Amino acid sequence: MAAEPLRMDVAKIAPDAYRHFLQLEGLIMQHVDRKLLHLLKLRASQINGCAYCIAMHTDEALREGEPVERLTLLDAWEESTLYSEKERAAFAWIEEVTLIADSGASREAYEALKVHFSEEEIGWLTLAAVQINAWNRIAISSRAQYDRAMFAHAAPAQKATEPA
Predict the structure, then answer these.
(1) Domain 15-149: homologous superfamily in CATH
(2) 154 has pLDDT over 80
(3) Are residues 84 and 91 in contact, defined by beta-carbon separation less than 8 angstroms?
(4) Contact 16, 150 (CB under 8 A)
(5) Alpha helices (H) along the chain
(6) Where are the domains of the chain?
(7) Cα–Cα distances in Å, from 138 out to 5, 10, 126?
(8) Which intervals of the chain form a coiled coil (predicted)?
(9) Are 134 and 128 in contact (CB under 8 A)?
(10) Cβ neighbours of 129 (radius 10 Å)
(11) How many of the other CB atoms lie within 10 Å of CB of 41?
């Protein structure tokens, strides 16, 4: 099935709003560990089925040295031993905020965060969840397709290494 053409370009339709989205993105990146942020964005994008964001955040994570195995097992993070308890708490939170109509952002998930993150950090994690869910909805509704060449100015991709 061929990709549907771009329906709309929100950046052109609402440039001021789009600029504010990018500014918020920059603020979040200043307050959340970049490697964790890539994983959180990727996990929310998997849940939402956002092809653009899955491709983009996988690419970004690989460029910053995230091992392929951690990316491919992210969808099964609860069963994998590759993630720390801190990451697990953040994954549970991103999932609950992404699926908030189902989970309501449970007390259990919030309490698990408090073991590893300060109140301020939890606030930024929540903003990260809100932001990626907004980006997912923009990309899916507009039928945007990720083009790695658009981000050629970023760090070069790391070569995959063969397992020993």
Answers:
(1) AhpD-like (1.20.1290.10)
(2) no
(3) no
(4) no
(5) 10-13, 15-31, 34-48, 51-63, 68-72, 85-98, 100-103, 107-114, 119-142
(6) 15-149
(7) 14, 8, 19
(8) none
(9) no
(10) 24
(11) 28
Average pLDDT (104-117) is 96
Q: How far apart are alpha carbons 141 and 63 in whole angstroms?
A: 27
Percent of the chain surpassing pLDDT 90: 82
Phi-psi region of 143 (alpha: psi -120 to 50; beta: other; left: phi over 0): left
Interval 128-145: pLDDT, tens: 999 999 999 999 999 888
Q: What is the mean pLDDT of residues 29-50?
A: 97
Task: Report the distance separating Cα 112 and Cα 55, nearest Å.
Answer: 29
Residue that is written with structure tokens 């658009």 in the block: 150
Question: CA of 5: how far to CAs of 2, 14, 110, 149, in Å?
Answer: 9, 19, 40, 18
d(CA 84, CA 87): 5
142: amino acid identity, one letter: S
Q: Calculate the CA dihedral of residues 52, 55, 57, 61 and round it to 10 degrees.
A: -170
Q: Count the residues in the chain.
A: 164
Distance CA 5, CA 27 (A): 31
Tokens 């991709």 map to which residue? 157
